[in-house]
Amino acid sequence: MVRVKLLAVCLVIWLAAGCKSSPDKQTGSASQDSTATTKTSTSGDPLPSWNDGAVKKSITDYVTDVTKEGSADFIPVRDRIATFDNDGTLWSEQPIYFELFYALDEVKAMAPKHPDWKTKQPFKAVLENNMGEMMKQGQKGLLQIFAITHSGMTTDQFDSTVSRWADTAKHPIKKKRYKDLVFQPMLELVKYLQANQFKVFIVSGGEIDFMRAWAEDVYGIPKNQIVGSSIKSKYEYNNGKPFIIKTPELDFIDDKEGKPVGIMKYIGRRPVFAAGNSDGDLQMLQWAASNKFKNFEIYVHHTDSVREWAYDRKSHIGTLDKGLDEAIAKKWAIADMKNDWKVIYPSGK
Amino acid sequence: MVRVKLLAVCLVIWLAAGCKSSPDKQTGSASQDSTATTKTSTSGDPLPSWNDGAVKKSITDYVTDVTKEGSADFIPVRDRIATFDNDGTLWSEQPIYFELFYALDEVKAMAPKHPDWKTKQPFKAVLENNMGEMMKQGQKGLLQIFAITHSGMTTDQFDSTVSRWADTAKHPIKKKRYKDLVFQPMLELVKYLQANQFKVFIVSGGEIDFMRAWAEDVYGIPKNQIVGSSIKSKYEYNNGKPFIIKTPELDFIDDKEGKPVGIMKYIGRRPVFAAGNSDGDLQMLQWAASNKFKNFEIYVHHTDSVREWAYDRKSHIGTLDKGLDEAIAKKWAIADMKNDWKVIYPSGK
Q1: B78 and A261: CB-CB below 8 Å?
Q2: For the residues A289-318, what does the mean pLDDT come to?
Q3: Per the domain annotation, does B29 fall within a domain?
Q4: How many domains does chain A have?
Q5: Which of A180, A273, A298, B117 is disulfide-compatible with A82, CB 3.0–4.6 A?
């Protein structure tokens, strides 16, 4: 319930801030399907959106060293496992986790089929954008919202609902689709590692099926290499038309200590490269740092209040405090968004 | 606990039959590391160990059809997911699951550090090969054996213990290492699918870390593409030397209805190709059969009492009854070991 608790806190802050997501169901997806991964560099530089400097150099030095046959630090291909957090590491996470925007948007989209929600909390408050009332509903209310939008449907239904949302819904502040708020420098990093025969995984606190519905196309990472928190599901045969239904029962929390556990569960070996942005990723980075092979740990540090957001030690979301101390002490790489990244998003801004 | 119950039944039968496993710790592994996957065909036939006939033709016809650009049945590479059961499908499973041989062997190997086991059940009975007493211990005793040999150690320790066992322990009847009792025709099938850009997964009722310790090398399937039953594990930081410890708590049973659930959990999409040998695989085959892409289901039918074992509808292990009916009714492929396979094992026999 850690994650849900976290979400509850964020929801309250989000509501207090008066933000509003705006899914634009009219936009259509076919014309907008040029995902970020289609962008390629024409120069020989594998990381063109990174400014030249110590961090960029440490990445390319590492990759060159461990992939060169005969190098003392050479890593066999099957051990080249890279794990990336998602929220705040591969895409933005402010003012609340984008998955929570999805949940609130979905309550609104589902409302016509639930006329009772007009008078039933916590749904009434969501439908009326009534912040005060939503705050009163607290964690219990949030759990209800999470359950109704993530369970009680088949895996196929959930997948198509989320992917339709990701194709159309827009961020209330940035006025862009959430899936366009991914970090161009990190897309290049993922691609660079893949080109050097690293197998790249997402290891996210977000719900696994939510991630898989859009992340495969956006990041170029196969569904089976996307690890996340999960709820239990159930097989039903249905007279020759089998389906799997998502239940509201919690299965696994892929956050903090859960991340190394999720890595061993889904991947079966330690990563040699791990990227995160918060204290929730610290254990994953520690786990990579304990690899017998030469390894690389990197934190994305949100320092750009103009182009993205600036936050770390005292943030309501994506807190980077203990992790920052440990990164400094252990000389892990720290990507300073403002100074290390030429652009933030694929749009070039 | 389904699987454990099954194991209990098998153990009783195994004990009644008076079988004895013989791990040969003296053999050494370096000289024996030529695994089955190193074997390659020199002819143009991708399935040289399969006799020409309807089953072999149906496999190659299917693969040719769905991988040919422009074919009406063409399947995009990312949807080419193949799932294989392990016990009885990729290696033998008689007279008891090989994982149970491991558990019993391990109790014996661990005994010197547990002098109390000489007088403590169920361990006493295992150490004395006392069948009558073991039978009296029943399921509770088996659970204790399973727990002591699969938990209470780090993932690293478990991995090295199992892989040492797999490198040396021999089957009591076949007098070969368990990992040499894999099916040569199935190794060729896995390779053939991989060569045609299918992503091949193992989806086994066996414990996931047990499988991963040896199956990657033996089958040429990466650890992260091995799905199985699991117990919970826990991250411990240990002053900068983190480890993950396996607890005795059950996490997930990857058998029967659990197989499609495990597939969606670990893979995130339906297979187009599924191979099994028992009723425990039926739901996995049904799940593949519900794929919108042209799909292929195959049962390995144990019909060779001379070269392997012959069993199906009334077997104490790997029962194939409902599944056989459904395979016949739906015209799924049925590989008749005796008639369809030129050889059973990589040794050529």
Answers
A1: no
A2: 97
A3: no
A4: 1
A5: A273
**DSSP secondary structure of B115-152:** GGGGSSTTHHHHHTT-HHHHHHHHHHHHHHHHHHHHSS
Residue B295 lies in a domain: yes
Averaged pLDDT, A24-48 = 50
Residue in chain A lying closest to B244 (CA): A261
Q: Are A264 and B230 inside 8 Å of each other by CB? A: no
Domain span at residue B98 reads 2-16+47-340
Mean pLDDT in residue range A64-74: 97
Compute the distance between CA of residue B215 and CA of residue B86 in angstroms, rounded to an integer: 9
Band of pLDDT at residue A25, cut at 50, 70 and 90: very low
Q: Say how many CB pairs under 8 Å bridge A and B.
A: 89
A283 with B209: Cβ contact below 8 A: no
Q: How far is A333 from chain B (nearest CA, A)?
A: 18
Asked if B155 lies within 8 A of A290 by C-beta distance, the reply is: no
Residue A328 lies in a domain: yes
10 Å CB burial of residue A348 (0-12, 13-18, 19+) is exposed
**pLDDT averaged over chain A?**
89
Domain at B199, CATH number: 3.40.50.1000
Q: Tokens standing for B74?
A: 């063409």
Q: Do B235 and A260 touch (CB under 8 A)?
A: yes
Q: What are phi and psi of B55, to 5 degrees?
A: -70, -50
Report the chain B residue with the minimal C-alpha distance to residue A269.
Answer: B223
Could you identify the residue written with the tokens 């001379």?
B306
Tell me what pLDDT residue B331 has: 98
Q: How far apart are CA B138 and CA B152, in angstroms?
A: 22
A114 within domain boundaries = no
Phi-psi region at B166: left, alpha or beta (left = phi > 0; alpha = psi -120 to 50): alpha
Residue A223 and residue B155: Cβ atoms within 8 Å?
no
Sheet holding B81-84, edge to edge: B243-252, B226-236, B199-207, B81-84, B273-276, B296-301, B333-336
Q: What are phi and psi of A347, to 5 degrees?
A: -65, -10
Residue in A201, A226, A261 closest to B233 by CB: A261
* CA-based nearest residue to A18, from A75, A95, A78, A92: A95
- Chain B CB contacts of A226 under 8 Å are 268
Interchain proximity A233–B266, CB inside 8 Å:
no
Sign of CA dihedral B25, B29, B31, B35: positive
Number of other residues whose CB lies within 10 A of the CB of residue A121: 16
CA B132, distance to chain mean position in Å, is 29
Contacts of B241 in chain A (CB under 8 A): 290
Q: Which residue has the tokens 């089976």?
A: A224
Chain B residues whose beta carbon lies within 8 Å of the beta carbon of residue A261: 233-235, 244
Q: How far apart are CA B85 and CA B278, in angstroms?
A: 9
Phi, psi of B41 (to 5 degrees): -85, 140
Q: What is the mean pLDDT of residues A48-70?
A: 98
Is A17's pLDDT higher than 50? no
Beta strands B226-236; B243-252: pairing state:
antiparallel
Per-residue pLDDT of chain B (349 residues; tens, 9 = 90+): 444 444 444 444 444 433 344 443 333 333 333 344 434 444 599 999 999 999 999 999 999 999 999 999 999 999 999 999 999 999 999 998 999 999 999 999 999 999 999 999 999 999 998 867 877 888 888 889 999 999 999 999 999 999 999 999 999 999 999 999 999 999 999 999 999 999 999 999 999 999 999 999 999 999 999 999 999 999 999 888 999 999 999 999 999 999 999 999 999 999 999 999 999 999 999 999 999 999 999 999 999 999 999 999 999 899 999 999 999 999 999 999 999 999 999 988 7
- Report which secondary-structure segment, H or E, holds B244: strand B243-252
